[in-house]
Design brief:
This protein has 99 residues and is mainly α. It contains four helices and two strands. It holds the Pfam family Fz. Keywords: Disulfide bond.
């Protein structure tokens, strides 16, 4: 565990992400033209989140899941990798999938 990281002061006034229209390919059938949250803690949030979704979807599809499971998995994975933006928040933040 990196103790330096644990002891750092976090600046909650600075946004840790941003809300932008989804413009990727992996989840375009579900998220095209929707504003999604990009997590800026990744060095390249756009590519990292797209890659994560692509790898998770590949893992599911490679298992030979039936089409109903594939559709459900795609929805969950895409909304996990690219959560919708909380439009009621003053700073960009993702909406939680489940409460």
């Amino acid at each position: 565990m990196n103790m330096k990281r644990c002891n750092e002061q976090l600046d909650f006034t600075r946004p840790q992400g941003e809300c932008l229209p989804y413009n990727g390919t992996v989840c375009s059938s579900l998220l095209a033209n929707n504003f999604v949250y990009y997590n800026k803690s990744y060095p390249d949030a756009y590519d990292e989140q797209e890659k994560m979704a692509e790898e998770l979807l590949s893992a599911i599809l490679d298992q030979g899941a039936d089409s109903r499971c594939q559709d459900s998995a795609r929805k969950i994975i895409c909304h996990h990798a690219f959560p919708s933006c909380d439009e009621d928040s003053e700073i960009p933040k993702p909406l939680q999938m489940c409460k």
